[in-house]
């Protein structure tokens, strides 16, 4: 197959243009008709469009490219389908109540979504780019590849299942102060975010494998490693902007309302911290740090 070169050798410009055009198309519909149904759908499906486009233009069919592209397509399709299902059930998105009728504030959300999609797609975009595919790649199945597949599977299951668990809990408990502590939420306050972070880093791990093992060199080597910006941005957004801050507004407190148990009850241990890491992992890390400090103290004393 023939490699297609468009604008630059890393498909950065063409994917940016596609993303801007795609999001503006849906923005025009949403703003004109005051329509929330397609907002998140446009975000998830944009990942699918970029992965298909760059894989088709790459002119190569290395297993590593196919796996990484399929993973981000599977994640994007699942996410957009779930969010479309959820908005069809709820009717509207409360995030836009103060923006829906205001052109520039509403457009600001869509610009933010453009940045999110384009940046988080970087590992797959660069992996499929001509400057990377011109290097011969070793067979898929290295330890790094397998670790990426395992992390993706764990993250995908955790995010998919916990999304449905939370949706069902919210449907059964309309009180915004109620805290979901069932299923994956028994172990951590935000398992869906933890799963999404795992997914993004797993795709990066697969994408960078050829560079890490010395097959891709020079500028392409640096470009592949630079795509870690994608999972880092996703993690930062979930932790500090669009994920935890929005979720914690009704839930950041030391007690949860449980009428069946007589009113306010203390939060479960796994929900004492707002970060998405499982509580057991945090306790283990804390125990390791404590043991390290004690060993240093005992060493000094000796």
From TrEMBL:
Specify whether Membrane is a keyword of the entry.
Answer: yes
Gene3D superfamilies, per database record: 1.20.120.1630
Provide GO CC annotations from the record: membrane
Annotated keywords: Membrane, Transmembrane, Transmembrane helix
User: Is Transmembrane helix set as a keyword in this record?
Assistant: yes
Q: Which Pfam families does this entry report, sorted A to Z?
A: DUF1295
Residue ranges of the TM segments: 12-33, 40-60, 66-85, 106-126, 146-162, 193-212, 224-244
Cross-referenced PANTHER family, in alphabetical order? 3-OXO-5-ALPHA-STEROID 4-DEHYDROGENASE, 3-OXO-5-ALPHA-STEROID 4-DEHYDROGENASE (DUF1295)
Q: What is this protein called?
A: Uncharacterized protein
Q: Which organism is it from?
A: Verticillium dahliae (strain VdLs.17 / ATCC MYA-4575 / FGSC 10137)
Question: Upper taxonomic classification of the species?
Answer: Eukaryota, Fungi, Dikarya, Ascomycota, Pezizomycotina
């Amino acid at each position: 197959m023939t490699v297609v070169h468009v604008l630059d050798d890393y498909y950065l410009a063409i994917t940016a243009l596609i993303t801007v055009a795609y999001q503006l198309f849906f923005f025009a519909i949403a703003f004109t008709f005051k329509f929330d149904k397609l907002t998140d759908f446009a975000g998830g499906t944009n990942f699918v469009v970029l992965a298909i486009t760059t894989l088709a233009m790459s002119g190569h069919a290395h297993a590593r490219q196919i796996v990484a592209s399929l993973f981000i397509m599977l994640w994007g399709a699942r996410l957009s389908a779930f969010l479309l299902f959820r908005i069809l059930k709820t009717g509207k998105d409360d995030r836009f109540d103060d923006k829906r009728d205001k052109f520039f504030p509403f457009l600001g959300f869509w610009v933010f979504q453009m940045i999110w999609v384009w940046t988080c797609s970087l590992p797959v975009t660069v992996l499929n780019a001509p400057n990377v595919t011109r290097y011969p790649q070793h067979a898929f199945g290295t330890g790094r590849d397998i670790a990426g597949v395992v992390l993706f599977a764990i993250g995908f299951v955790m995010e998919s299942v916990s999304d449905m668990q939370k949706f069902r809990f919210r449907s059964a408990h309309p009180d915004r102060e109620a805290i979901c502590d069932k299923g994956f939420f028994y172990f951590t306050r935000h398992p869906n975010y933890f799963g999404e972070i795992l997914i993004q880093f797993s795709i990066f791990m697969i994408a960078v494998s050829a560079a890490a093992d010395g097959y891709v060199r020079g500028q392409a080597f640096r470009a592949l490693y630079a795509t870690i910006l994608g999972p880092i941005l996703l993690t930062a957004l979930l932790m500090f902007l669009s994920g935890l801050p929005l979720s914690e507004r009704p839930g950041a407190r030391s007690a949860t309302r449980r009428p069946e148990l007589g009113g306010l009850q203390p939060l479960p241990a796994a929900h004492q911290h707002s970060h998405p890491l499982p509580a057991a992992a945090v306790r283990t890390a804390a125990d390791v740090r404590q043991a390290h400090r004690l060993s240093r103290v005992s060493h000094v004393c000796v």
